[in-house]
Amino acid sequence: MKFYAVARGRKTGIFTSWSEAERQVKGFAGARFKSFKTKQEALAFLEDPSYINSASSTKDIDCAPKKKKTTQHQTATYEYPENAVMVYTDGGAIGNPGPGGYGVVFETGETFSGGFNLTTNNRMELLAVIVALEALEGEARPICLHSDSRYVVNGITKNWAKTWKKKGWKKADGSPAMNPDLWQHLLDLLPSLDVRFIWVKGHAGNPLNEACDHLANSTARMPGLPDDTGYLKSRIDSD
């Protein structure tokens, strides 16, 4: 008999069947679980999820990203902090520019969505992140925010946005940095929150990322969407 210890999942504890344990961890972002030959080893793992008995033949099946060699097109490795708030965001525009929408999905099941009659992919990706962080105002726990937009993730983790702001919202070549209104809003939200930006590959079967994509796309197709005044202003300014 094997003992399946779930340290992070829908329900934690020790299970004696894989089907029961799988229900607790499948599709649960950041799930952490292992199988053991003895109940004592399973209990030790629950008390300290970093516990590994070298004599055990247990295979580590932690769902957090592992440290491994990756290509430039793969997701960066990341180790989730304990008690983190897990949230996924996505956005897009049909035709780019065109009708657009954004989606936000929390691991707890809470969702947010919205859209505009004319906007861009990048604006919706940014707005999804802004809406997620506004919903977490005052949150003291670490926040793991997942996005499939390298524009958004690199804009923060590589300090692109801060550099553009210092240059008067100009890029290194002197051309205008797009979406300064949304970047400024996002930068204003970050100092009071402990946010980790994590890039995930889109359309790769991640259930929460897929849920965000569905919200964004379905909203973009809704009639009567409002104007994206920030986008309209940028078009006027560029003329």
UniProtKB/TrEMBL annotation:
SUPFAM superfamilies: L9 N-domain-like, Ribonuclease H-like
Keyword set, alphabetical order: Cytoplasm, Endonuclease, Hydrolase, Magnesium, Metal-binding, Nuclease
Annotated compartments: Cytoplasm
One Pfam match: Cauli_VI
GO terms (BP aspect): DNA replication, removal of RNA primer
Note describing how the cofactor binds: Binds 1 Mg(2+) ion per subunit. May bind a second metal ion at a regulatory site, or after substrate binding.
Residues that span the membrane, as ranges: none
GO molecular function: magnesium ion binding; nucleic acid binding; RNA-DNA hybrid ribonuclease activity
Residues reported to bind Mg(2+) 1: D90, E125, D148
First-level EC class: hydrolase
Binding positions for Mg(2+) 2 per the UniProt entry: D90, D213
Record flagged with keyword Nuclease: yes
Domain RNase H type-1: 81-221
Known cofactor(s): Mg(2+)
Tree of life domain: Bacteria
Record text on subunit structure and interactions: Monomer.
Function as written in the Swiss-Prot or TrEMBL entry: Endonuclease that specifically degrades the RNA of RNA-DNA hybrids.
Family statement drawn from the similarity comment of this UniProt entry: Belongs to the RNase H family.
Record NCBIfam families: PRK00203.1 (NF001236)
Protein name: Ribonuclease H
Species this protein is from: Desulfobacter hydrogenophilus
